[in-house]
């Protein structure tokens, strides 16, 4: 039986000198990258988004993690689409596996997590999309009850109710729009993932035959490109631009 959530979070916090409170916060991928770095010491930590808040930043972290798994021949699927949703069960299962892997492969050497991430603070990632606070009613401080404030008319309660109703409707509309965008994002992400797998499989077949395909290499460059340069797994043969 695997460790409890409390035990795992305590282990992660002690190892990485951070202050996570929930397993779901590992869904950003930053902690996973540094746990692997504590074993091998060769993760390009300058590319890891330690304070990832946006979806594309999460994906950059998982691309770094995938590269590390491939470089060290770690035969474990990384379910990126599930982990990035920051659901407790998916991240709990992956963290339990990662803890066992760490115990089997960590050499007991000294590891300075803060120095490895060059002092970058790891703020606790959000586990849900932030929701704006409800509008507050105007303060009555300094206004006598039952009297009209000097120089202004009394604010009718119905006006506040109407404003709240309008804002609530806007929030519902934005939520519906966001849900549509997330579905569209997931759809295109799955397509890109299928292309990535197909290209890599074909490259491996060609390599086994002593051949190469420049078009597939260019496709890989596009798939692995980020705003910082190229994130290309070792062993693919694609030239990687040094960015750190």
Could you characterize what this model shows?
It is a single chain. This protein is mainly α and 244 residues long. The chain folds into two domains: 5-117, Calponin-like domain (Actin-binding Protein, T-fimbrin, domain 1, Orthogonal Bundle); 166-224, Single alpha-helices involved in coiled-coils or other helix-helix interfaces (Up-down Bundle). The chain has helices at residues 5-16, 30-40, 55-71, 80-83, 88-105, 113-116, 157-208, 214-224; strands spanning 225-226, 229-230. The two termini are 40 Å apart. Strands 1-2 form a two-stranded antiparallel sheet. It is built from eight helices and two strands; from the N terminus they run ααααααααββ. The chain is globular and about 75 Å long. The relative contact order is 0.12. 53% of the residues lie in helices and 2% in strands. One of its GO terms (molecular function) is microtubule plus-end binding. This is Microtubule binding protein.
Keywords:
Actin-binding Protein, T-fimbrin, domain 1, Single alpha-helices involved in coiled-coils or other helix-helix interfaces, 244 residues, disordered C terminus, single chain, mainly alpha, 2 domains, two-stranded antiparallel sheet, globular, 8 helices, 53% helix
């Amino acid at each position: 039986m695997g460790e409890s959530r409390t035990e795992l979070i305590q282990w992660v916090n002690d190892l990485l000198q951070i202050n996570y409170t929930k397993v779901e916060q590992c869904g950003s991928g930053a902690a996973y990258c540094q746990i692997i770095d504590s074993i091998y010491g060769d993760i390009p930590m300058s590319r890891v988004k330690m304070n990832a808040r946006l979806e594309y930043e999460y994906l950059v972290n998982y691309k770094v993690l995938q590269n590390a798994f491939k470089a060290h021949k770690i035969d474990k699927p990384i379910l990126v689409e599930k982990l990035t949703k920051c659901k407790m069960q998916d991240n709990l299962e992956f963290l339990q596996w990662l803890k066992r892997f760490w115990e089997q492969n960590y050499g007991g050497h000294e590891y300075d997590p803060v120095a490895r991430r060059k002092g970058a603070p790891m703020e606790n990632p959000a586990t849900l999309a932030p929701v704006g606070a409800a509008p507050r009613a105007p303060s009555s401080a300094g206004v006598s009850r039952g009297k009209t404030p000097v120089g202004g008319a009394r604010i009718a309660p119905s006006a506040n109710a109407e404003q709240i109703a309008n804002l609530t409707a806007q929030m519902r509309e934005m939520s519906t729009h966001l849900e549509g965008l997330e579905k569209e994002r997931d759809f295109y992400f799955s397509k890109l993932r299928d292309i990535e797998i197909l290209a890599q499989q074909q490259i491996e077949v060609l390599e086994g035959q002593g051949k190469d395909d420049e078009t597939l290499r260019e496709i890989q460059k596009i798939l692995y490109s980020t705003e910082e340069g190229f994130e290309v797994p070792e062993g693919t043969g694609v030239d990687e631009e040094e960015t750190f």
